[in-house]
Amino acid sequence: MPEDSPAQPKRSALDRFLAGISESIFFGRLGVADIQLVDYISDMLLRFVRMDGIHRVRRSTGQPATEVYQMLLEGQQRIGLARREVHRHIGDFTLFWSGVYPESLRSPHNRNSVDAVLDYCRQGKQSYRIAAEIEGGEGRPSSELLERLSDQFDLCAYGLREVRRAWEERDGEDPHDRRLLTS
C-alpha cells in the first residue's frame, strides 16, 4: 500500500525523517530486525519533539512531573492502565535522555536534582518491566514489546546515540539539499 494512501494518514516530513534515520541505524548498522521496536522508538522520538510529550505525567497539583523521581511517586499512586502509562512514560523518558542526550544527565545543573542519584538505565528497564506486567488493551503497545524494551534498553539507548550522531552529521550537509525535510 502506498505510504500516503487514504487508508494510511499522511506522515509529516519530520515523521518520515525520524523513521528513516531510526530504520537506517537500527536495521542497517545495528542489525536489529525488530520492526515493532524500531517503529516504537521512532514514534517516541516524534512524541518527544514536543515538550508536552516529554512532560506528559502530571502531579496531583496539575503541574508537570519534570523529574523521574516525581514520576515514580505518581506511578505509585495510580492503578491499572494509568499506572501502566506512567511507567511506560518513565521508560520512554529515561531511554530518550540516556540515549539522545546522555551528557545532560551529567551536567552541573542536574547535580541539584533528586534524579542525580538515579540510574536512568536501571530505572528505565524496571519501569518498562512494570508497565509490561499490566495488560494494555487495544491500541497500546503490547506487553511483549515493553518487555523487549526493558531487555534491550542498553542497545536501544546506544542506537539512539547513533541516531543523534547521524542527524548531527546531516546538519553538516549543504542546507539547500534538504529535500527530505521540505517535502
Would you kindly provide a written description of the structure presented here, covering whatever features stand out?
With 183 residues, the protein is mainly alpha-helical. It has one domain. The protein has 10 helices and no strands. It has helices at residues 13-29, 35-48, 51-54, 68-77, 80-100, 102-105, 120-132, 143-151, 153-171, 179-182.
Key structural traits:
disordered C terminus; mainly alpha; 0% strand; disordered N terminus; 183 residues
Shape: globular
Q: How many E strands?
A: 0
Largest sheet at a glance?
A: none
Helix content: 55-70%
Return the structural class: mainly alpha
Poorly predicted sequence stretches spanning 5 or more consecutive residues: 1-5, 174-183
Mean pLDDT: 84
- The first-to-last residue Cα distance is 20 Å
The proportion of strand residues reads under 5%
Using the CA coordinates, give the radius of gyration: 17 Å
Q: Please provide the ordered H/E string of secondary-structure elements.
A: HHHHHHHHHH
When the domains are counted, the total is: 1
Quaternary state, please? single chain
Briefly summarize what is shown.
With 183 residues, the protein is mainly alpha-helical. Helices cover 63% and strands 0% of the residues. α1 packs across α9 (153-171) and α4 packs antiparallel against α5 (80-100).
Topology of helices and strands:
Blueprint: H1 13-29, H2 35-48, H3 51-54, H4 68-77, H5 80-100, H6 102-105, H7 120-132, H8 143-151, H9 153-171, H10 179-182
